[in-house]
Amino acid sequence: MKVAVLGAGAWGTALAGHLAQAHDTLLWARDGALIDTLRKTHENARYLAGVSLPQSLKYETDLATALEHAAGEADLVVLGTPVAGLRDMLRTMSDLGRVPAHFVWLCKGFEADSQLMPHQVVSAELPDHASNGVLSGPSFAREVGDGLPVALTVASTSADCRERTLAAFHHRAMRIYTGDDVVGVEVGGAVKNVLAIATGISDGLGLGLNARAALITRGLAEMTRLGAALGGRAETFTGLTGLGDLILTATGDLSRNRTVGKQLASGRTLDDILGALGHVAEGVRCARAVAAIARAHQIDMPITEAVCDVLFAGVAPRDAVSALLRRDAKAE
């Protein structure tokens, strides 16, 4: 099959490299200098240094050409843009008259202004499009780029989309599971990033493994409560895109969100941390949205609120932890 990956960040690049080992794959980015370098070196030194990409992988800066590459009914387009860029990408595809027959998105989070999940943004921009879904799960781009084993989930209400995604990705060291709980998968992918900031703060303060375990467990309870209120199924949150992704992001040293938390604990400012990070940390972008949605649905999410206090209200990390510990006792 033919596959086009739109977005040459770390995750888009890693997945394009995986796809190119089995399919006719094209990687698109708007940055001409980056694409020129990729064509010459077959390495994305900016976002995935040290990973050699297959010689068969193609590169493109023209979006219309990239979409044309995977325009057939048997093809797939992978949207590797962050949540903040998803709506513009959908509108551009529509304006070009090149909306693909089947596509999946990789972004995790809520749109900041509207507080919409990615599938809601897709529905708003392309209300008549049926074969689309989300690909998510516990995954670091570096490990996928190195060919290490990984398991992901594609969630879609369209059997055609699930089948296309399975056909594209399920080979070599990548295992793909399928489901139709789009809401549950997207809530898990969004909330786990906020909780990873919390565990990073805890670890950065040296609070120990007991505290980390408590944060992950109670954080999972927060995720499940919110997801169920928004229409997700409880069992989704004990799977790859809930507990699995939370464990990885909250404990793995390759996690950008965990890194943000650890550096906040060391006394660095958020602006300084994000400026030096060089990659998107979605937990920072969507923390306010998660907290606002929880309040609107009267869902108790104290860990999320504590993270927002540290990120945006100037509360010292250690004071936020103390406030959590002072909460009244309650039944689990």
UniProtKB/TrEMBL annotation:
The active site is at 192 (proton acceptor). NAD(+) binds at residues 7-12, 141, 256. Catalyzes the reduction of the glycolytic intermediate dihydroxyacetone phosphate (DHAP) to sn-glycerol 3-phosphate (G3P), the key precursor for phospholipid synthesis. It comes from the Bacteria. Belongs to the NAD-dependent glycerol-3-phosphate dehydrogenase family. This is Glycerol-3-phosphate dehydrogenase [NAD(P)+]. It is found in: Cytoplasm. Pathway: Membrane lipid metabolism; glycerophospholipid metabolism. PANTHER family: GLYCEROL-3-PHOSPHATE DEHYDROGENASE, GLYCEROL-3-PHOSPHATE DEHYDROGENASE [NAD(+)] 2, CHLOROPLASTIC. It catalyses: sn-glycerol 3-phosphate + NADP(+) = dihydroxyacetone phosphate + NADPH + H(+); sn-glycerol 3-phosphate + NAD(+) = dihydroxyacetone phosphate + NADH + H(+). NCBIfam families: PRK00094.1-2, PRK00094.1-4. Substrate binds at residues 108, 256-257. It comes from Paraburkholderia bannensis.
